[in-house]
Specification:
5-stranded mixed β-barrel; 3-stranded antiparallel β-sheet; mainly beta; 123 residues
Length: 123
């Protein structure tokens, strides 16, 4: 999975595709669950996707208890994969299903980890 973390360091989100059957995976996998081959290739996920759904998280897991309430969404990308990620927006009312989003890599303030998030694009 090292190419995934190397991608984050470059500001890219990486996924895998089976060279035999073409199945795509995010999170990345080293083996194809469609044809059971291990011949996978890495590719960069497009920067823009479409928001499929979202929800606000009020009751958080213990390791997120220090965080304010946050929004998680699912976006679909041109490669026909869906990614679940935090949506970087404060106003839930400004979100709508079908809106364009940008997939970006940021460094978290609290723990300095690199993470991928969705940022809504203004129409």
């Amino acid at each position: 999975i090292m190419p995934f973390f190397e991608g984050l360091m470059r500001g890219e989100v990486m996924a895998t595709r089976c060279r035999r059957c073409g199945a795509k995976y995010f999170p990345p996998q080293s083996d194809c669950s469609t044809c059971y081959e291990s011949d996978m290739e890495w590719f960069k996920v497009s920067d823009e996707g479409v928001l499929v759904t979202y929800t606000q998280i009020n009751v958080k897991p213990i390791n997120f208890s220090n965080y304010d309430d946050y929004i998680v969404g699912i976006a679909k990308f041109p490669e026909d994969i869906k990614i679940v990620a935090r949506v970087m927006i404060n106003d839930l009312k400004s979100l709508s299903v079908g809106m364009r989003t940008k997939l970006v890599v940021i460094k978290e303030e609290q723990n300095k980890n690199l993470v991928y998030v969705l940022k809504p694009l203004q129409e």
